[in-house]
Amino acid sequence: MDVATIIGNIDTFVWGLPLIVMLLGTHLFMTVRTGFIQRKLFTGIRLSVTKDPDAPGDVSQFGALATALAATIGTGNIVGVATALVAGGPGALLWMWLTGVFGIATKYSETLIAVKFRVRDHKGNMLGGAMYALERGFKNKPLGKFLAICFALFGTIASFGIGSAVQANALTSVVVTAIPSAPWWLTWVIAGVVAFLSGIVIIGGVQSITKVTEKLVPFMAFFYVAGCLIILCINSQYLGQAFSVILTDAFVPRAAIGGFAGYGIQMAMQYGCARGLFSNESGLGSAPIVASAATTRNPVRQALVSMTGTFWDTVVICAMTALVLVTTMCADPSLGADIVAGNIAKGATLTNQAFALIPYNIGTVVLIVGMVTFTYSTILGWSYYGNRCVAYLLGKHAILPYEILYIAVAFVGAVGIGDLVWNISDITNALMAVPNVIAVLALSGLIWKDTKHYVYDGNLDEFDTADIPIVATK
């Protein structure tokens, strides 16, 4: 057995049942522990567009949310949904949606502790994330420090694959595929453009990244959702059938029938939860890194803002993609027949074929613009995650070399990337969840205490009087 096969098997294992049980269990536990914080979703949405200039922080609450969404909304929202559908059946889409609903509580919790234990560097810039929550919040300091280093290491490695190479490769693929008889050199041109456009933003730091994402994220989300709504209007006669198929297949196993493949409940749960967890990143600890830079008067306010990211990512955008795919399959049963026959074995293939069936090329335009903007924004967002992780591990002098390497990896990824690179980064992305979930569960008592005081006791506008310490940078 070669190295690539071994790494592939490890990737399949870590994104399998153990990780699903850990993350979904944490989602359910924190939903109960926070008093079903999901009911405060509209408060979080209101706060996300509320300016708080007197509060400490480097970027606005909306800027932090936009950057987190930029990193989160990516190929998983389009291709990932189709992958869950191909592997687990239409019922997997309901389980994917449910991981988003319950994942809101975990996103809230991990952000709360990240902001609560954030620190300042020698220039006054905010530093935060699971690594600081583990280092400062754990009573067992050696264990907390070890887990913090693990999280930062996994985050750094994952950023090169999940954030840079894989996204750049997906961007190039969708553009080249859309152009008939594309010349061989087009891939290299696109790679150069991707690297250049990424570099001029990334080198500018978090302020530069947030300025771009604040404008890009609302546009790309609105355009994609609007495009999906147009497609759903075209497929409106199949909406009832689509909902019926999704709901039924999530709980009732069946044989292949009516153009759809036969699936079991376990497959629907496994693939739906796995793709949902991958898409919204709740529990992985990535989004709280940028949330820690936000201007906020207390940790709970930014936690409420951040939890809306999971709502927009999975509950809205992934759901839109799911309905587009299933209604299109209802309209054209040959897609389901191709899955049964094995002609469609990958989510990307189903996505391309399904969107291409939409009249007047609407689906193709929506898919191309969505994929290009989603992948580019993810490259920007994940660059900041890796930036903060490598700074924690190696100090401020490692940031510029990291950024240069990150941009170079984006160029190489755009030209072509092998499964080995994808699998390694995918593994480390999943492993980020282990120390992060430990932090969330270990500090769940503190999370509830702050939630009760600020949210349920009506003190949401109160300033947190705790000092934000200045740490020595290497």
In short:
By secondary structure, the chain is mainly α. The chain contains 21 helices and two strands.
What does it look like?
With 474 residues, the protein is mainly α. The chain has one domain: Amino acid/polyamine transporter I, CATH 1.20.1740. It is built from 21 helices and two strands. The chain has helices spanning 3-14, 17-33, 41-48, 61-72, 79-88, 91-116, 130-137, 141-178, 186-202, 205-234, 239-251, 265-280, 287-291, 299-331, 334-341, 347-356, 362-394, 399-415, 419-431, 433-442, 444-456, and strands at 119-120, 126-127. α8 (141-178) packs parallel to α18. The longest helix has 38 residues, at 141-178. The protein is globular and about 60 Å long.
